User: Fold this.
Amino acid sequence: MLEKRDADAVRAHGISIEAVEEQLEGFRTGFPYIDIVRPASAGDGIVRFDAERLASLGRRYDGACASRRVVKFVPASGAATRMFRDLYDFLASGRENGVSAEVLASLDRFAFYDRLRTVLPAGAAPEEIVRRIVGPEGLGYGSLPKALILFHRYPREVRTALEEHLTEGAQYASCGGRVAIHFTVSPEHIAGFRSLLEEALPRYGERFGVEYDVSMSVQKRSTDTIAVDAENRPFRNGDGTLLFRPAGHGALIENLNDIDADLIFIKNIDNVTTDSRRGDTVVYKKALAGLLLEVSEQAHEYLRMLDGGLPDDAVTARMAGFVRDTLHVGLPDGFGECTARERAAFLRRVLDRPVRVCGMVRNEGEPGGGPFFARSGSGLVSLQIVESSQIAPQRREVMRQATYFNPVDLVCGVRDYRGRKYDLTRYVDRSAGFISEKSKDGRPLRAMELPGLWNGAMSDWNTVFAEVPVTTFTPVKVVTDLLRPGHRS
Assistant:
């Protein structure tokens, strides 16, 4: 499959020949489906907050924040090509579609309208207007990352998605007057990020009375995967070289693992709202963080007790109840008949893992993965975020019963009970990826996606799901999403 001339190219990519051979075998055999048991629901795997609980968890986080290093982690790699796909289709075909028609009819409602007018020739035809939105002769939005696109208009300013994350971070991730935010960025966009940050950080720092600590990283080339053709042979470029592709957001577990923090918020770059609508986001982010602290501190207390020796039956029962009822990890069959040492070993293995608290939104027809109870290869049942592509066709009826979906609203605890940072790469389910159909230069290819950041890459974390309101979820998947109420000031 691989030729002698390929060895140097593979190693230059930071990948071993053995890893590429494993990837090629993965294309041939495919990935196994996730064994879903049932959807998580309110009261059965998903926590709901009343007003009192919401407030108390927020206070818990506020009280602990100053003594902990908190980082807001924002995946922001890649160009916004999908966001403007319908506009490109309009330019290619000359036929108007629903998105292009709505854009042209609502131009003055977009935050980027005033900037667009400065690059529009007089009397521009519809095709020229669209070309000036996406093309390099105009705004160039088709090749920019979402972070650098103007999302929102206010009476005295307009803001990019990146600036809204600076604003949001100051409202729930400010600890001791410091706001740490980490963006993952494509190499070709680093200069654009730096240029905007150089101008924005002093302005927003003064506005909110905080000091920003903004860092960036790129997806590591060593996490790329080889592409194959329809016959699962290595796909070769026109010059005969191998084609490697970024292996999806699951590869970002490496970037996340490099973050030195106690608590990490994760939220996608396009999921931001305006000042007047951000209240729920701030309140629930703090509550999720407060719940994370509560769960982590209890797990750490039990681990310290296990360090002191074998617990008696009453303490073991409390620990087992916490694992079963709070972490929703099923106890193995015959747990009660195991020896004290065997029970303690199981409890330690479950308790001593990274923890994540994930906000879940009531399903109102939005696409995305969902919260399920799933059974691992070892038979252990736990809470998992599962994408539709990971569910076997014969289990799709169970998938359709789901009443919640994943908006990517996470808070992560990444230190153990001794204060040491976990090696997050040890908690990845390597079998949880998937294969997608793509193309290059008009030729079809098959691409391998690594286990997703919030599903397979965190498969072996302890997981708690909590309901958050739909007002906290305002993604921008297509450009006309910017016309939705969640993006109006």
Notes: The radius of gyration is 24 Å. The chain has a mean pLDDT of 93.
